[in-house]
Write a structure and sequence with these properties.
It is elongated, with a radius of gyration of 29 Å. By secondary structure, the protein is of the alpha/beta class. The chain has 17 helices and seven strands. Helix 4 links the parallel strand 2 and strand 3. The strands form two sheets. A four-stranded mixed sheet has the order 1-4-3-2, covered by helices on one side. The N terminus is likely disordered. Keywords: Transferase.
């Protein structure tokens, strides 16, 4: 164990909001192995624990939240499971010790980043989705198998390096950008009170709640087989209904089949069942398709293991935003202002529309620049102001820019937001380096 601990190369990667969302869920797969006449039933389990620790050295952090490992025997024979087409009804009852949702471990009270269960010829690997995506999940399992095989054979195992640094993705991104569809943008920015409350819960509490809801509103799953011949035949029929030269992949077709089938048997999700609330737009059917970006970016050889990258605050990201603001303000010409005044004075304008529009967005930031205001010119007979500022909780603007007392050329900024957001702002490394706290 000490050798393993010494082998850990500890690095810290910030948990993004996207990964925080993914961390709700577990990636779980059960792997079945047929009996091998040349080895005992426990052939792979002999070095599994030792190799798992060795494999984990590539991705375990200094917190030492080591993968949970369980090894046990079973009186259920592999042939019985195979003859039942691997139906879960034939699995050992304790094979899957974790829930669909990330849930605190009974022994440690922590949410384990990974759990494994080796039961004779059955392997279960559970990995928190916040750690890796589906590709990385299976790469880890394959690496674990390679390490085990090498240790049992008494030969050195090939060293595999994995990359978790999401900034590496940006090395493969082109300079060109395309606008996102409005549907996608709204899907990732829409706010819902109960969802905000849920993501704001401590991870352990959230896991217990989601597991409780899961028990109260259980899902049901079945495994189906679709023959290649039938799929190809259907593909030909579909292509006949499309413009010449169209291409339909198997993924395209299977996804369409699944979504259409689901629409036919539509049922409110667990959140709707919990709240008894109906969606505002009942006619829409959202279909989310997971897409592996590695091949599309030409980064398959670097063993990137994490989740998608999110923009940090950098000069480049700021430049993108600045350009948008500059373009918008450049459009404010006299003719444009005239049209705006006409609108404000027309019957089409509604004050309530402003509130409705603001409520449509995930986040609204109102800025006002008062840096050119004459805030240090009022002399009542004993000199001008020594300091001028707004009330800290200024409701008309989140970001109020003010001048500093002369002769300083600095700016003051009054930042108004919620207590939780402010807590995050004060801890933000970029903001802390860029701005100093006055009060």
């Amino acid at each position: 164990m000490l050798q393993f601990l010494d082998s850990i190369e500890s690095e810290v990667y910030a948990l993004t909001k996207f990964e925080s969302f993914l961390s709700f869920n577990n990636l779980r797969t059960v792997f079945f192995y047929a009996n091998n006449e040349t080895t005992s039933e426990l052939h792979a389990a002999q070095g599994a624990r030792r190799s798992l620790l060795s494999d984990s050295a590539a991705w375990t952090s200094q917190t030492l939240n080591l993968p949970g490992y369980c090894e046990s025997q079973s009186d259920i024979h592999y042939c019985d499971i195979e003859s039942a087409n691997f139906s879960p009804s034939t699995w050992p009852s304790d094979l899957v010790p974790v829930c669909d949702f990330a849930h605190p471990d009974k022994a440690t009270g922590m949410i384990k980043l990974a759990n494994t269960h080796v039961r004779a010829n059955l392997y279960l690997l559970n990995v928190n989705h916040g750690v890796t995506d589906g590709y990385g999940y299976f790469e880890f399992f394959n690496c674990w198998a390679d390490q085990t095989r090498a240790m049992v054979a008494g030969v050195p195992a090939e060293t595999t390096r994995f990359c978790f640094d999401r900034s590496a993705i940006r090395q493969y991104l082109p300079n060109e950008r395309l606008p996102l569809e409005d549907t996608l943008f709204r899907a990732y920015t829409r706010k819902l009170l109960i969802a905000d409350k849920l993501v704001g819960l401590p991870p352990n509490t959230r896991g217990k709640l989601l597991s409780y809801i899961e028990r109260k509103t259980p899902n049901r799953g079945h495994l189906f087989r679709i023959s290649r011949d039938k799929l190809d035949d259907l593909r030909s029929q579909v292509l006949a209904c499309m413009p010449p030269g169209s291409r339909v992949s198997s993924n395209d077709l299977l996804t369409a089949i699944g979504s259409k089938r689901r629409a036919k048997a539509k049922n409110p999700g667990w959140l709707s069942r919990l709240t008894k609330a109906k969606a505002r737009i009942e006619g829409e059917h959202c279909v989310s398709v997971a897409c592996d970006l590695r091949g599309r970016l030409g980064m398959t050889d670097m063993n990137y293991f994490g989740n998608p990258a999110l923009d940090p605050i950098t000069p480049q990201t700021l430049a993108d935003t600045v350009g948008q603001i500059r373009d918008t303000l450049s459009n404010v010409t006299p003719p444009y202002i005239g049209s705006f005044i006409d609108l404000l004075e027309s019957d089409d304008f509604s004050t309530g529309a402003l509130i409705a529009t603001m409520m449509k967005y995930k986040l609204v930031t109102i800025t006002t620049n008062m840096s050119q205001a004459r805030m240090y010119n009022a002399d009542f007979g004993s000199g001008v102001q020594a300091f001028s500022t707004s009330h800290p909780t200024y409701p008309a603007a989140n970001f109020l820019i003010l001048p500093s007392p002369p002769p300083s050329k600095d700016f003051l900024v009054n930042f108004t937001t919620s207590a939780s957001e402010m807590k995050s702002i004060l801890k933000n490394e970029f903001w802390s380096d860029f701005a100093s706290l006055v009060y």
